[in-house]
Amino acid sequence: MGKFNGHLYPGLYLFSYGLYQATVLFKAMLASDSLLYASCPPRNKGRWARLWKISYGGLMKMVTGSTLTIYVVFCLDDGMVLMNKKVPPRFMYPKEWQHLTMFILLALNGCIDVMSKNLLPQRCVLLEKGTLVLILYVLLMLFISHVQGSAGIELQTHSLLILGHLMLAVS
């Protein structure tokens, strides 16, 4: 995960998800619509009517989080080992475990979105937003601890991510 490709895939996801959120915000502003309860144009009531109601943002989070979780687990040569056997025990691969935690939280956020928008009888915005705020705070703490031992462009990039997460968590 410490190589260029290991950071390219999560970066591409963050960039594409940022573009997706920007288009959702732009459409809501054009239609003078609420961001919490974004309306969608009426669709036909045919065989595929339920397909149009799927939370695509949540589905994208679930698929991407799961894919990146699998990538982190299998990118190490000797597998994901939590602690070494030496005395005193130390964490093995702490940055990879931080990446794994971030991607599991992303998949969990997607599961909550899909569950709230598609499976519950009534959408629970409080559950969605509460989960998002908790995940943002956990990610903020993970990014702050993730920066230790970084230098150069990696430090600057992670600092920008920390600033973005801090602004999201405060707003």
From TrEMBL:
Record field: transmembrane: 12-30, 51-74, 126-145
What are the protein's UniProt keywords? Membrane, Transmembrane, Transmembrane helix
Q: Which domain of life is it from?
A: Eukaryota
Q: What's the name of the protein?
A: Transmembrane epididymal protein 1A-like
Question: What's the source species for this entry?
Answer: Pteropus vampyrus (Large flying fox)
